[in-house]
Design a protein that fits this description.
By secondary structure, the chain is an all-alpha fold. It has one domain. The chain contains three helices and no strands. It has helices at about 5-35, 45-50, 55-84. The chain is elongated and about 55 Å long.
Length: about 80
């Protein structure tokens, strides 16, 4: 395997792991809310769990997504040069 393929697969794996790990608190809140079957949201967690999508996190998401898109671009480019 060439370096581009390895980097592409690594970046995709990291993206999936970050997505899962960063959404576990939100998914647990939704799960607890569905189990209670009422529409009230109990304040069981810190405030950052409820307001975790502020401007700083959106900028961070854009930076991370651009890095991943850059890696996917080179991954596809390496596949293209290898087979075509």
């Amino acid at each position: 395997m060439s370096t581009g393929i390895i980097l592409g697969l690594g970046l995709i794996t990291i993206a999936i792991c970050f997505y899962i790990m960063l959404n576990i608190p939100y998914w647990s809140l939704l799960w607890n809310k569905r189990k209670k079957k009422n529409l009230e949201l109990d304040k069981e967690y810190h405030q950052w769990v409820y307001t975790s999508d502020d401007v700083l996190n959106k900028v961070l998401k854009v930076c991370v997504w651009s890095l991943y898109c850059y890696g996917i671009y080179f991954f596809i480019l390496e596949i293209w040069y290898k087979f075509f």
